[in-house]
Amino acid sequence: MVAPPPPLTRPRAPGVPRGRRKDHMTDFSTLGLDGRLVDAVKAAGYTKPTPIQTQAIPLATQGRDVLGLAQTGTGKTAAFGLPLVQALLEANKRPQPKSVRALVLAPTRELANQIADTMKPYVAGTPIRVGVVVGGQSLNRQANMLSRGLDLLVATPGRLIDLMDRGAVDLGQTRFLVLDEADQMLDMGFIHALRRIAPKLGTPRQTMLFSATMPKEMESLAATYLTNPARVQVNPPGIAADKVEQEMWWVPQADKADRLKELLAENLGARSLVFARTKHGAERLMKGLVKAGFDAASIHGNKSQGQRDRALKGFREGTVTVLVATDVAARGIDVPEVAFVYNFDLPNVPENYVHRIGRTARAGRDGRAISLVAHEEAGLLRDIQKVMGTQVPVMGGEAPRGPIPKTTPNGRAGSKQGKPGGRSRGPQKGGAPKGAKPKADAPKGQPPKKPSRAKRPRVRQKAA
Q: Are 125 and 36 in contact (CB under 8 A)?
């Protein structure tokens, strides 16, 4: 593992008096930002920084490594994006061909695109160039874009490695690294990609890591890639946003689709995000909603990038009012008008529940999160409530009786035989009985003999 680099040091940002409590700052001009950035933020319609921005921006502008913990929808992109742009402006350099000065890694295409779209207004009128590379798009076109060099690159780890393998990008001059939604990167197995990317980055560098939850693996990740980081935290990790009103209903699995239609009909026209556990389940549910007359679309791993972009565009514009999604595809959905989040299936990973319901109550709005819970999901519900440290109010339905089985890492109830939640390792139907001697292998170089068919006794038929 590569040793963490020494931290970048920059002078204490102007406008941040020593000893002053940062939570007293109520204007972007007090955070030590360049005047051009303050004007760009105001032009985008923002006048008051969020708590995560108030805490993180002054530290990041001083060159500190930052570990930020905050729910989705709290302004994390600006919390790391504005200091990044300021640092690039202060350096006053131009990127070399194929090089990248700052890198932001995100777990999904949608989130990467959202980050890039958020950053572009901040760099308007400056020489800073922002690019994005994600899967599902032309590698040649992305390589051509990188050939001229970029100041700021937003990427998914898999596509970045594809471009690295082709020699299309040089990270040796990258002095700034941001890992956004880092907990989801761990869940999706991107830690292996990160181990390939990190040694290629330049040193010294400033690293910022942002996450909505803080599993044990995150502590190890932070210790590996951050140097003496400043920890900023809006709410304890795993706690849902305050403005989200949560509720749940006990519903048999077979009745969930009908109950969902009833709830959607009660709030017809409201922007609603529905979460399903699997890709096939999401597609099947979406088709059922369309057949019932709802303006529904879906995004999941089986959809092409064009299909996902069109579904998200329709959802943002309001021509699609119900979007059915899986956990992975939904990361990066930033639509402030989302009024309802429905958990058609509970997530296997308890922390994903916090990410899901964080898609509503964004930008200061209120929102509701409604979960439809089958009896076999009682263990998942218990795990979610344990992570959040609170109980989700039950609005109706019949709760299961008896002890709740423990769930395994894949979210299934454990079984007595075989691997937890998996197939039994006992003898299969039609297999050899227990204790039977195994058949000897055929001599080396000779094909095994085909089993001979047992001879049946001939029965002489009588003439009619």
A: yes
β-bridge partners, 342 = 274, 370
Residues 105, 188 contacting (CB under 8 angstroms)? no
Which domains does the chain show, CATH number per domain?
22-233 (3.40.50.300), 244-396 (3.40.50.300)
> pLDDT per position in the chain (464 positions), as tens?
444 444 444 444 443 333 334 444 468 989 989 899 999 999 888 888 989 999 999 999 999 999 998 877 778 899 999 999 999 999 989 999 999 999 999 998 889 999 999 999 999 989 999 999 999 899 999 999 999 999 999 999 999 999 999 999 999 999 999 999 888 888 778 889 999 999 999 999 999 999 877 777 888 899 999 999 999 987 665 555 667 899 999 999 999 999 999 999 999 999 999 999 999 999 999 999 999 999 999 999 898 888 988 999 999 999 999 999 998 766 667 788 999 999 999 999 888 898 888 888 776 678 999 999 999 999 999 999 998 888 999 999 998 887 776 665 445 454 333 333 333 333 344 444 444 444 444 444 454 455 445 444 454 444 43
Q: Over the chain, what HEC string results? A: CCCCCCCCCCCCCCCCCCCCCHHHCCCHHHHCCCHHHHHHHHHCCCCCCCHHHHHHHHHHHCCCCEEEECCCCCCHHHHHHHHHHHHHHHHCCCCCCCEEEEEEECCCHHHHHHHHHHHHHHHCCCCCCEEEECCCCCHHHHHHHHHCCEEEEEECHHHHHHHHHCCCCECCCCCEEEECCHHHHHHCCCHHHHHHHHHHCCCCCEEEEEECCCCHHHHHHHHHHCCCCEEEECCCCCCCCCCEEEEEEECCHHHHHHHHHHHHHHCCCCCEEEECCCHHHHHHHHHHHHHCCCCEEEECCCCCHHHHHHHHHHHHHCCCCEEEECHHHHCCCCCCCCCEEEECCCCCCHHHHHHHHCCCCCCCCCEEEEEEECHHHHHHHHHHHHHHCCCCCEEECCCCCCCCCCECCCCCECCCCCCCCCCCCCCCCCCCCCCCCCCCCCCCCCCCCCCCCCCCCCCCCCCC
